[in-house]
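[job 0412] stage=fold_complex status=start
inputs:
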Amino acid sequence: MEDTTTTTDPVRRWVGDREFRMLIGGELVAASGGGTSTTIDPNTGAELTEVPEADPADMARAVDAALEAQGAWEDLGLKGRTRCFEELAALVREHRDELAMLDAIDCGNPVARMRFDVDLAVEYIEGWPGLAAGINGQVFPASPGNLHYTASRPYGVVGRITAFNHPAMFAITRPLPSLITGNTVVMKPAPQTPLSALRLAELFGQAFPPGVMNVVTGGAAVGDALVTDPRVKRLAFTGSVGTGLTIQRRAAESGVVKNVTLELGGKNAMVVMPDADIDAAVEGAIFGMNFTVCQGQSCGSNSRLLVHRDVAEEFTALLVSRLERFRVGSAYDESVDMGPLVSAAHHERVTRLVESGVSEGAALLTGGERPADVPAGGYYLSPTVFGDVRPEMTIAKEEIFGPVISVMAFDGFDEMVRLANDVEYGLTASVWTRDLDVAHRAAHLLDAGYVWINDSSRHYFGTPFGGTKNSGIGREESADELLTYLESKVVHTRLGDANAAFERLARSRA
Ligand code: NAD
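[job 0412] stage=fold_complex status=done
writing structure:
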């Protein structure tokens, strides 16, 4: 292998002629059928390298390995599993720059922000053992002379399928609650962005016993093999509504009842009341849209801005002028605000939705085109703001999953609530006002799993994250999530007569 440690070209340095392998049963392996797929650099459109495209047989082998490893992993206990988590945290910290750069190269998210993702992931690795230590059971005073208590056991093998937008962070953090509760995991990362997950497969292989964590790469067919494997009774999915529905159906068609949790899309409303701090709200809108993290490709992004008519003009003008100063460019560049979209296909889809906004009569206030001075061949789109958006327009209803924001003006409180809730999604919402009554009344009425008041986007480990309506089922990143990887049982003990028992014991000893 070429020595690339001194080159300043990140692709040569971190991808070069390195081999990216899956992790199955503790071994780093190619696909058994020899299948590969080419991963593309969205910054330039250039081919990066080949990665394994697994066969369904590889998925079956990964489930075999996970099943075999599960008993010993559970028996290791929380303390033993915590030691493996500590080892993983140290390895991830050591490889921080590499993992962040792989995401910049493979996904197009700015490298500086991806370092933040890796740091956050380390916090999660360190956080889960503490939450797991708080798991306890219950004792029920159901009837005298009986002892009823609950105990819980892991499901066994958990199938984890993830989306493309935070590749390293998802590959690190999404399996953790399954693992800390004594399950073993088979993970399938997104096919657009496999590199950091495959590099992490090596680190997982160093930190955990063989078979505890398995990483298998490929597209929908490989994911389907995991979903329909009757031995995998617990599935957790992060991705789009369409795929989530398919997974629920295919899980049922496996003939086995499965516990499926889904973290899906969003079309999230941020509400700006006339008394809001407008400067802070504009910054909140930009931060909450995740422009600078992943080009708006985030489930939680506030892609619909509902602004009171009295302040709509001032708010929109400030928003547009802030976004027009953004630097869009290669995600390897430390100083860019935004990189490219993840793929040519996704760029085409987002562009089509922008065109639908124009053709359906919204006012394109800024963006919607390829910025000047970006690297040739990359999938760039400038930050885009639409005004005069009406609720029936496609851009007001569909999740765009790109750097496109729609501003809608409202007059009354009830009208605002109706507009905010008039979508199939219910992931997040955000309300900006100085009035406590308005804030909490809105928080109560907005149909979303996570509501911010005078803030956006920030969520902290331990607070349950997840959506209502078609945004999903289940809550993650919290004690609530841990319990979903455990099946509880009640143990009912009939207590006999203690005096008679004691006498029996005394007689037997005499
Ligand atoms: P996607 O649904 O296209 O793919 C997600 C994953 O599912 C990928 O790994 C893909 O290969 C796999 N997959 C596709 N078809 C499958 C099938 N039939 N069986 C099994 N697996 C299959 O989503 P995406 O484009 O990668 O990600 C974008 C979507 O993810 C957006 O809708 C976004 O809102 C959502 N998302 C949600 C959250 C959340 O926490 N709620 C977080 C990130 C992304």
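[job 0412] summary: Residues 161-165, 188, 190-191, 219-220, 223-224, 227, 238-240, 243, 246-247, 263-266, 299, 399, 401, 427, 472 surround nicotinamide-adenine-dinucleotide (CB under 6 Å).
[job 0412] exit 0
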